[in-house]
Amino acid sequence: MIYKETFFFFNIVIKLYYFYLFKNFFEENKFNQNCFYIHENQPWEKSLIYHWKNNNKGIIFGVINSSVRFWDIRFNKSNISPDFLLTNGEDSFNKILNFGYHKSEVKIVESLRYEKLFKISNSNFISKKEILIILDYTNKSNKLLIEVLNKSKLIKNYKIIFKEHPLNRYKKLKTKFKFSNYKASNSSVQYELVICTNRTTASVDYYLTGQNIAILLEPDFFNFSPLKGNKDCNFFYDYIELDQILKNISNKGRKNINSNFFMINPKYLNWKKILDNEK
Fold first, then answer.
1. Most buried by CB count within 10 Å: which residue of 3, 33, 216, 236?
2. Taking the CA atoms of the chain, what radius of gyration do you get in angstroms?
3. What is the pLDDT of residues 144-197, one digit of tens each?
4. What is the reported pTM?
5. Which stretches of the chain are DSSP H helices?
6. CB 162 within 8 A of CB 133
7. Phi/psi at 215 (nearest 5 deg)?
């Protein structure tokens, strides 16, 4: 169904709708300011950029509001691109350059979405002998993760907490160990370990708060983790490697929290330069 919608009639109509929607809007409305939009390379963005440049003198900025994964071709530079891309840290900046953008077209500004994570210090956490398991939106990844956990010899030594994906509510998990469900009160816990699949971006949230992270790699799948190549994270294929991680882990959390992953500055100096039209 998705294939048909992408290449046949339905999606063509949607693209035409966006094209003429922005065409009519900008022909009837002129702006003296700059334009900012969330950049994900969705079809409507091309229509926005094209008609903005044809009808307005202001600069158009694409704002990257999330972490960027190395494989996400949505961020590839196209013939219709904004004047500048605003990235939210060194990690996204370097990855965007690999997608075909020149350094002169990309700027780093303070992260707005992840700012709250840096207000949370792992020194304020309550250390407990608990492991948080973050489930994925795909059943295949969840099934593989459960199979690995069930074979682990050390997982039973911990209190296990499962956090389900909001778009994939599980009905029953076939585990060989006891577990409880995630609650809001669990957010202040310094876990012994946070375990997740490589497809979820939730790993970034816990990484930035100093938690120990272990990410499952699937044998027949690419490593899609936004933390791919990060030396502070643990990656494992099977229960043997997971048990080795559990033997060496410390519930004190990571001392080296990479604050450069996202740019955080409560004074928003880089944003102020952009908004004041300083380049």
1. 216
2. 22
3. 999 999 999 999 999 999 999 888 877 778 899 999 999 877 777 789 999 999
4. 0.72
5. 2-7, 9-28, 43-55, 90-98, 139-151, 202-208, 239-248, 269-275
6. yes
7. -120, 125
